[in-house]
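User: These chains co-purify. Model them together.
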Amino acid sequence: MEPTLRRPPPGGGEPAVTGRLQRVSRAGRRRRPSGEAPPLPRTLNRSGQLWLGAAGAVLVLWAAIIMNQRTAQLVLVNDNRVVEWAAGLRTELLTDLMQSVHALGSRWILRVLFWSTVVVLVVLRRFRHLFVFLGSTLAVTALTGFFAYLFVWPRPLGVEILGDWSGYAHPSRLVAALTATLMGMLYSLAPTGRLRRVGKPVIAGLVTALSVSLVYLATNSPSDVVIAAVIGVTIPLVAFRMITPNEVFPVTWHRGSSAHLDVGGRRGQAIHQALEDQLGVQVAEIKPFGLSGSAGSTPLRVKVKGEPPSWLFAKLYAGSHLRSDRWYKLGRTLLYGRLEDEKPFNTVRRLVQQEDYALRLMHGAGVRSPEPFGIVEITPEREYLVVTEFFTDAKEIGDLEEVDDVIIDDGLRIIRRLWDAGLAHRDIKPANLLVRVGRVHLIDVFFAEVRPSPWRQAVDLANMMLVLATRSSPERVYARARMHFNDDEIAEAFAATSGITMPSQLRKTMRDQGRDLHTEFLALLPEWYSPVAIQRWSLRRVGLMIGVVLLALLALAAALNSFSSAGLL
Amino acid sequence: MRRLLLVAVVCLVLAGCGEPVTGGFLNPRQPVCRYQGRQATTMVVLMAQAVPTASQLPCVALLPAGWSVSDIFVRNGRARFSLDSDRVGNRAVQVVLERFCTLGNVTRVPSDHPGTRRYQEVISIEPGKRYRGAVYYLFPGGCVTYRLDFRSDEQARPLSEVSLALGFISRDEVRQTVSDYTHGRLQLDPPSAATP
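Assistant: Joint model of the two components:
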């Protein structure tokens, strides 16, 4: 085909977007004025700010102790006064009671609390909460261990020590570990409401009881336990409120999916408001849609008020999706080398900009894909929606009994159009090919790439042929493909495609059908090309592999060391 | 990736790989006998608290070249540290302070530290390869064991280096240091504790 500067005519001279049954009514957009909070602001709440303030005061005190010996002596002397006073209250009965309370900080109680929380979170698949729990507990144990090593403070002086102890006194690692574990349990296991409200004073009571017993038994001074408690509360509290805010990641007791965000409650209201303000649509309902086919975002169907009501499709992207994208690209680089552009996105904003840009590019190139409606901001730099038209009455190609020649031609024409426009979709699979009014529509263009490698373009063709063949036959698809592509191009496509270059959904479909369509296609080709190697070795890849392994081992060793010295292992 | 690296570095530093510059009370972090003109360090104070009856406390007097202190662990009833050597191996000497010792097949020898009784035990000798033995110092209220494990054909030289490296500090000296440091406001032991 000759290159052209004009927008290519859609397949068969028909309009690119056919059969649009309804128009979405858009009016009353509103610009958020300066100073007004975004739809879903993230706040620490007053208690979080107070605890952060307390942690700041601890840091100031520590700095003073390190820089000025008199401050250290003052703290030691005043601490000891309290311990001596408490020792003056000792009776046999009270000592027995305090020894029993001291058991709250025993290694076995800590281990049981810590590991039971880990197990429950794994069973409930609350991995986000699990990582925050592990991370905040690790941060608390590492921080208190580091400062204990830094200060090297003795146990209370001049008083008989009655309790068991080990290591330096300040800050109390026992109190910090118990507080952090209990706080982590509360914020990862207790749903908001009565349970969490009751849990807070219970934790306060337990930590206070342990602290009083430690001071009474003279194993620690008041500053050791108070500072440890402040650290033990502040780090998990801030971590859970910032990373898993309850409005966004509510704690529930049913198994959840790690990739998909909750769109009810406060977040649902925020999405509702943001769509109305920023797109000017009157939202009637927002529902998750097609979650199983999407792992990289949370897809939603938005019902827009009107006569008759219309629909929009939206994909919610958050920081978790950005991190998933980064890990995915790092994994690809480790497994295959720099096969394609593996540069990760820096921010959620850039990620959604890419998707919106790809949508507009596809639409502009005449590929039958959803019309973009724009980006909606939920929480600045954290959460955005990419909104497109919703294909009503469309069916996934995999849900059809059979595809006819018109659909096969349509699918193949999409690939030809992508090739001509210098684009690759990079995720051709049944879930991303919708059939509506006898026409194939291409969705989920997030992975689209401009000026891709010839290998990637060839993979797109092979995957399209394989998808079409799952609902017809290789012979039929091959015969139709020869009308759009020459034999060399088809042979190249099947040389470029092997197991891992096929999306997992496509592989599963073929497996379920008990067919090896790739081999069946190869049997039809007049000539075979040597398989295209997808491993790209470079010094960078080797260095990255070694670096990742070393970092993982070091991080694991540091975490194990920290957990172990805090009695959690 | 950069953030990940930063987190890893911070974790490593916080987990104890970093060397802090200062502390608040009679540093350093090793059980040395003398530091900046004072007898004992916090570590020795902590060891004294671990075995409150001990009238003598083990400490590092002078580390010969090639030796270093490691594996310090103190809890109520027991304190321990090790000496690593670049010639006779890591944890060549493990120093343990306890209230009581269980003596094996020992021989009493003249003590090189006043106020202590010294016993020696040879556990095993693999000629030219390894020497394992123990030295016990008994004194009022406590006992210190040097567990020796030299992975070398040498015995005499490392043993003399160990004798040079390790010493004792009396509890009274530690008491005085604590009192001096806090201008008499704090004492190491409770007032009722009689000198053993």
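The two ends of chain A are 67 Å apart (CA to CA).
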